[in-house]
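#struct-help
A.M.: can someone run this one for me? Single chain, 149 residues.
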Amino acid sequence: MNRDNDGRSSPPLHSVSVAGAVIREDGRMLVIKRRDNGNWEPPGGVLELDESPQEGVVREVLEETGIHVEVEQLTGVYKNIHRGVIALVFRCKPSGGEEGPTPEATAVEWLALDEIKARMSEVYAVRLLDSRTPNNPRVRTSDGKSLIL
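D.P.: on it. Structure tokens below:
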């Protein structure tokens, strides 16, 4: 339990984020190199209070990559237990736009599965890999660096 300003117990707080597992017809997947930490990740961010998860992922992918998407399916729910972040990942297909660097991403690329495994940390790569499997949605927990089984 967290404590409020008066020392009373309050329920733990969580943040909800959304991310797009955007897959082109050739099977390559859209990823960004984050400007703030240099990590390769699926495009996404914090869900706003006044939007649905699907609206949020469409907005975040466009803001971070320049690509418009159509949301197909929820493919995973991921919790970082140390940061209290719940991430909802949706498989999407591109529907227009042109990828390029943005205020949030120094690079935007379409990667093959082997490139995803090589460039991305386990906790982010698995979000894209899970989107390619038929057993969706997956539910996974991490400590921010590694999956907790």
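A.M.: thanks! The longest helix spans residues 53-65.
D.P.: also worth noting: The chain is about 20% helix and 45% strand.
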